[in-house]
Design brief:
Layout (H helix, E strand, L loop, with lengths): L10 H28 L1 H8 L1 H5 L12 H17 L1 H12 L5 H37 L4 E3 L2 E3 L5 H18 L2 H10 L5 H6 L1 H15 L4 H40 L1
Antiparallel strand pairs: 1-2
Helix pairs in contact: 1-4, 1-5, 2-4, 6-7, 6-11, 8-11, 10-11
């Protein structure tokens, strides 16, 4: 029992500690929000770059407050990403004292891998999936039966479109972390995940159909990485199983 952090704090002290950590998280989010709000137009300029590259140079807003709310949303989304290291650190500081050293070593890599995998997924959406989707969706412009069909995307709808891609791909790329945590908690095993591979492939294409436009290219851009990430999770679980087996053998030898 010596390898767990000693604590005799009653429930009230734990609640006070939780409140303090939450206040730090809220303060970090608010501070980042005001900074991001100042740079919201520059951030949004980055988000509309794929639209410009697709040949669309106009965005409209049809509601009087729409442009303002878009600026607020951009600032909030950016602030959530900027303040994530602080929030994650506060979460770790709260739960770490109640973990064994082995549990800390097991959980910390997942915590560090989360922002990396999310950033990889969001980057793939921004640089590949969003341009492909815009190219497909804007291709419907032109003369149809003597009537000019022109795309006039609203600023709010475009922001929702981009955020759906960024967060959809980012969260989807966290699949290995989720599966490895479930295996670590004993909820699933590697053999069960291997047996469910065919269902996982179907689920990957279903998720891609929901999160992406109806064109096949955009759906494949999400479905194929999800299938590969599933296999990557199986490989990662295999390595962790071997590591746990070696630790168990070492402890058994030391106990003798």
């Amino acid at each position: 029992m010596r390898d767990i952090d000693d604590t005799k704090a009653p429930l009230l002290e734990h609640l006070l500690e939780l409140r303090r950590r939450l206040l730090y998280c809220i303060a970090a989010l608010i501070f980042a929000f005001f900074i991001c709000y100042y740079f919201a137009e520059d951030i949004f300029a980055v988000l509309v770059r794929p639209l410009l590259q697709a040949g669309q140079t106009r965005l409209i807003y049809t509601q009087i407050f729409e442009a303002f709310f878009v600026k607020v949303k951009v600032a909030f989304f950016a602030a959530a990403m900027v303040s994530f290291p602080v929030i994650a650190n506060q979460l770790w500081q709260f739960i770490a004292p109640g973990l064994y050293r082995k549990e800390k070593r097991a959980l910390l890599p997942f915590l560090l891998a989360t922002p990396v995998l999310f950033a990889i997924g969001a980057s793939m959406a921004y640089f590949i999936a969003v341009p492909m989707a815009l190219h497909f969706l804007l291709s419907f412009q032109g003369n149809i039966g003597g009537v000019t069909q022109e795309a006039l995307p609203a600023i709010g709808n475009y922001l929702s479109f981009v955020m759906q891609f960024l967060f959809g791909f980012g969260i989807a790329f966290l699949l290995p972390v989720l599966l490895m945590l479930l295996e670590r908690a004993g909820i699933v095993t590697r053999q069960q995940l291997k047996g469910a591979r065919r269902y996982a492939i179907v689920a990957a294409f279903a998720i891609a159909a929901v999160l992406t436009p109806p064109d096949v290219g955009s759906q494949l851009l999400l479905a194929i990485p999800l299938c590969l990430l599933y296999e990557l999770a199986l490989i990662g679980i295999w390595f962790t199983e071997r590591a746990r087996a070696r630790e168990a053998d070492t402890e058994a030898v030391a106990g003798e």
